[in-house]
Amino acid sequence: MGDRMIRVLLVDDHQVVRRGLRTFLEVQDDIEVVGEAGDGAEGVARAEELKPDVVLMDVKMPGTDGIEALRRLRELANPAKILIVTSFTEQRTVVPALRAGASGYVYKDVDPEALAGAIRSVHAGHVLLQPEVAGALLTQDDPTTGPGRGSSLTEREREVLGLIADGRSNREIARALVLSEKTVKTHVSNILMKLDLADRTQAALWAVRHGLTD
Q1: Sign of CA dihedral 57, 94, 98, 129
Q2: Beta strands 54-57 and 81-86: pairing type?
Q3: Most CB within 10 Å of its CB: which of 70, 125, 194, 195?
Q4: Pick from 169, 179, 124: which is nearest to 116 by CA?
């Protein structure tokens, strides 16, 4: 199963948290913990070195915090999916992380099986948006992503965008719309270009804000 293993990097300033995460994840048949880091700066360096598939990133860390580390990884075009693992439920903590490019977030008291499921989900290309955060995004003003930009989207692109916001992967979108995965990837690229967005997470947030979800 070596080629199917999901390579995970743990970034948290509390060693006991990293140890607990590692202990659970190492018993999963399809998940491999490839490294750890104690702060954001080290996390960026380790992610560049180890090329993990998924990074479990704490938000509040001394020095370089998780959000800044996430921004640096995006600037470096690191392909790893970032799953925020936090004990903070405030919107002012979680929403900036999602806007910076995180694929989703879970709380530190998450059920272990739910955590493994979240890792598999973001690795598959899903975006994890909790209802309370989606609601918060609807109430926040973001002048850089106004609804006027959506006028350039085709009807098919709007359908694809709505499915991205529902957390569907490219493969699932292709099945739902009876398209090839290659065609879906083209639509996603066009959506990001037209809306001037960095990734599908930001696209999902845009869709939520502008009512393209059910």
Answers
A1: positive
A2: parallel
A3: 70
A4: 124
Q: Rg (Cα) of the chain, in Å, rounded?
A: 17
The rounded distance, in Å, linking the Cα atoms of 10 and 55 is: 6
144-181 pLDDT, tens per residue?
Answer: 445 556 778 899 999 999 898 888 889 999 999 999 99
Classified as helix, coil or strand, 11 is strand
SS3 193: helix
For tokens 């075009």, name the residue: 77
Q: How far is CA 18 from CA 12, 159, 169, 175, 179, in A?
A: 6, 40, 29, 38, 41
Burial of 7 (0-12, 13-18, 19+ CB in 10 A): middle
pLDDT for 138: 52
Nearest residue to 133 via CA among 168, 94, 187, 174: 94
DSSP assignment of 99-115: HTT--EEEETT--HHHH
| Separation in Å, CA 174 to CA 94, 164, 203, 214 | 30, 11, 17, 18
pTM value is 0.71
What are residue 194's DSSP bridge partners? none
Model confidence at 132, pLDDT cuts 50, 70, 90, reads low
Please, is 6 exposed, middle or buried when counting C-beta atoms within 10 Å of its C-beta (0-12, 13-18, 19+)?
Answer: buried
